Amino acid sequence: MKSLLLLLLVLPDLVRALGPLHRVPLRRRQSLRKKLRARGQLSEFWKSQHLDMIQFTESCTMDQSVNEPLVNYLDMEYFGTISIGSPPQNFTVIFDTGSSNLWVPSVYCTSPACKTHPRFSPSQSSTYSAPGSHFFIQYGTGSLSGVIGADQVSVEGLTVVGQQFGESVTEPGQTFVDAEFDGILGLGYPSLAVGGVTPVFDNMMAQNLVDVPMFSVYMSSDPEGGAGSELIFGGYDHSHFSGSLNWVPVTKQGYWQIALDTIQVGGAVMFCSEGCQAIVDTGTSLITGPPAEIKQLQKAIGAEPVDGEYAVECDNLNVMPDVTFTINGVPYTLQPTAYTLLSGPNRKSFLSWLQ
């Protein structure tokens, strides 16, 4: 099974003649959640962060404008490489449609997380300039802060000049220490960007680096490194899907926000009966939602709480219900094997909560 996610900045009638496709290979690595679980340290992680994910879903407030739990990044598995500066300094990043800033660790960072990752050195780049402003992002378990720099940023042959990006000087706690990524490259809309920074892809369009103002993301479910996964700037690859594309309007240009018609479980509408809003986010592997509804959904599929997560027995997959999301009039049905994650020799888990 393979999955395809397309995120587009143009209307369908503008996509008839695609220009050159600029491909960014994505590699799949073990997520931090799986790494901690394999070490038997996942429960200890929850305790160290003063979080129990089941209790967390029930105590979340509606105001998420200031704090964001860093557990959002526990499930990142698809990463790519970019370079910053002249000569290039390479970093592994998440290409994240749920945010709009680019940031990487700074050589001046002394946090434990920075010591386990490559750090950007301004003095080693002949094209660097310092706008002089600071950036600050408050997370649920600490803050990410630093300075805004500007330099050329290259992604598989596409070089953006004068790109502003964050150089993190402090990174929160232990959360990023074991992370497989060094930083994040946001692919959301400019309205989400901290400090009014222009996102990388918007600069690609402004500097005429892509013929068609579009990017697409293909994530292979191949368990050995996600072979074939890629981010494409300037269009999409027909070989990654069969049939026709279904186009979905963006309802609000911040996150990639769309309208859901209904959510069915086992063929019956259980949620979103009058329509609701959702976002499409490459920055999380989970299906998330309001805590009360997610708890109801877990019950409907037969999931039980285990060590702060929800789990089901593998033997029950053949009797569990399908979950169908109807988007713009088109139903997308997930069978149990598609909405569960293998987490042990005798169990699969369906992991969802309000972020």
Can you put this structure into words, describing what you see?
The protein is mainly beta and 355 residues long. Helix content is 13%, strand content 35%. Mean pLDDT is 80; it is low at 1-16, 51-71 and 349-355.
- State the shape: globular
| Overall residue-averaged pLDDT value | 80
β-sheet strand percentage: 35-45%
Largest sheet: number of strands, sense, barrel closure = 6 strands, mixed, barrel
Query: Rg, please?
Result: 20 Å
The structural class is mainly beta
Q: Which residue ranges are poorly predicted, with pLDDT under 50 across at least 5 consecutive positions?
A: 1-16, 51-71, 349-355
Q: How many helices does DSSP assign? A: 7
Instruction: State the helicity in percent bands.
Output: 10-25%
Count every beta strand, where a strand is a DSSP E run of 2 or more residues: 22
Distance between the termini: 27 Å
Order of strands, widest sheet: 4-5-10-6-9-8
Topology as a string of helices (H) and strands (E): EEEHHHEEEHEEEEHEEEEEEHEEEEHEE
How would you sum up this structure in a few lines?
The chain is mostly beta strands.
List the helices and strands and how they pair.
Layout: E1 2-8, E2 22-25, E3 27-28, H1 32-38, H2 42-48, H3 53-59, E4 78-84, E5 89-96, E6 102-105, H4 112-115, E7 134-139, E8 142-155, E9 158-170, E10 183-186, H5 200-206, E11 214-220, E12 230-233, E13 252-253, E14 256-265, E15 268-271, E16 276-279, H6 291-301, E17 304-306, E18 309-313, E19 323-327, E20 330-334, H7 336-339, E21 341-344, E22 347-349
Parallel strand pairs: 5-10, 6-9
Antiparallel strand pairs: 1-11, 2-12, 3-4, 4-5, 4-8, 6-10, 7-8, 8-9, 11-12, 13-14, 14-15, 14-16, 14-19, 17-18, 18-22, 19-20, 21-22
